[in-house]
Amino acid sequence: MIDLDDLFVRLVPNLSVNEMIAPCDCGYSVYIKDELPEDKKVEALYHAYMHTQCNDFSKDDIQEIEARAHYDLDNLSEFRKALREAQTQYEC
User: Where does the source fall among the domains of life (predicted)?
Assistant: First the structure.
C-alpha cells in the first residue's frame, strides 16, 4: 500500500528544477514546478516519493540515488491510483 500522508506538496511557480524534497517535522516537504503539465507533476511527485521509500536522505552518492530514482518507474500506475484515492479523501 502506498502511504501519502507524510508528503506535504507545494506547487511553486518558476522553480528551477521539476521537483525538490526535504525532510520536515511531520514528514517531507515536496516542491513541484507549477508550470509542469499534470502528468509530469505526478511523475515528479512519484520521484520524490521514491526518495522517501528508499531512505535516500541517509545516503551519500547522489549519482547513484538519482539514477535509481529516475529509472524506478515500476509502480507509477499504482502510485497514480493511490494519488487519485487520496485526492477524494480530502475533497470538500
Answer: Bacteria
Burial class (CB in 10 A: 0-12, 13-18, 19+), 20: middle
Q: Smallest Cα–Cα separation from 53: which of 34, 43, 36, 68?
A: 68
pLDDT in tens, 16-61: 999 999 999 989 999 999 999 999 999 899 888 888 887 777 888 7
Nearest Cα to Cα of residue 66 among 47, 85, 52: 47
pTM reported for the whole predicted model: 0.78
Chain center to CA of 55:
13
